[in-house]
Design goal:
Elements: H1 5-21, E1 30-35, E2 40-47, E3 52-64, E4 76-87, E5 94-104, E6 107-117, H2 124-137, H3 142-152, E7 154-155, E8 160-161, E9 166-172, H4 177-202, H5 209-228, H6 231-238, H7 243-246
Antiparallel strand pairs: 1-2, 2-3, 3-4, 4-5, 5-6, 6-9, 7-8
Helix pairs in contact: 1-4, 2-4
């Protein structure tokens, strides 16, 4: 594994945590280390505040003798940063970001992306900004990765997408490691550009109790996707990961 990967992920995680904490002058992320039973471990970082009802920005780096998914076989190392936000203000959308690197047997690949999920209050200008940021970041890959997101974040039993899309990719290996690594880093580095301007505006917007009810019902669909279809959730459980870290993506409250 390239020795730049883990330091980059930890630096990115700290940068995102600092940006989120700037919205919460009275709150800080709580960090909890955990060990994986076959090797490695990770750190859960969670904040519950006045702007972020719950946000998690987690890092993990785990290894083992048998890759737990069908993508590959043999000894593996998987590392990544994964984050989720659930906002107090219903007009501020949930955002998800994950970038990861996996080496399993004689295969290695990059994966990840970021996507936006309004919780009942989609704003076309927010969607446009989010997608424009992604397109500027990776113009050569945007069309394919945006289509990947539309397909991946589709909820079959609801017959709709989870949110308004973004970018998503998996098993990315062109044979040019430096090119792939740079693209992967660019996605991580532009995430805050995609979301912070939206939060600067939407977290200041007035909302009602009825708005909150709408948000909670929309969150239910998010829960359904993460528990039934999400690959990261499946990998976490099948690899024997920390349940608290895996389930950090769950909102603090939802309604059906």
């Amino acid at each position: 594994m390239d020795e730049r990967i883990v330091p980059y992920l930890k630096q990115l995680r700290n940068k995102i945590i600092n940006a989120f904490e700037a919205f919460e002058p009275e709150k800080k992320f709580t960090r909890t280390n955990w060990d994986h039973h076959t090797g490695g471990g990770g750190e859960i970082s969670v904040i519950r505040g006045d702007v972020f009802e719950k946000a998690a920005v987690n890092w993990s780096g785990v290894s083992g003798e048998t890759f737990p998914m069908q993508d590959a076989t043999g000894p593996f190392f998987a590392t990544g940063v994964s984050l989720i936000t659930h906002m107090v203000n219903p007009h501020a959308p949930t955002v998800h970001m994950n970038i990861r690197y996996i080496k399993a047997g004689d295969r290695e690949w990059f994966a990840g992306g970021y996507d936006l999920t309004p919780m009942g209050f989609p704003y076309s200008e927010d969607t446009a900004h989010f997608h424009t940021t992604a397109k500027k970041a990776i113009p050569d890959h945007y069309d394919k990765f945006a289509q990947n997101a539309r397909e991946y974040f589709y909820i079959p039993h609801r017959k709709k997408e989870r949110g308004v899309g973004g970018i998503f990719f998996d098993h990315h290996n062109t044979g040019d490691f430096e090119k792939d690594f740079h693209m992967w880093q660019t996605i991580g580095d532009t995430f805050l550009d995609a979301i912070i301007p939206l939060y600067q505006q939407r977290t200041q917007q007035p909302f009602t109790e009825q708005d909150k009810e709408t948000q909670l019902k929309a969150r239910a669909h998010y829960v359904e996707f993460n528990l039934i279809y999400d690959r990261g959730t499946k990998f976490g459980f099948q690899s024997g990961g920390n349940p608290e870290a895996i389930l950090c993506s769950m909102p603090p409250a939802a309604k059906w």
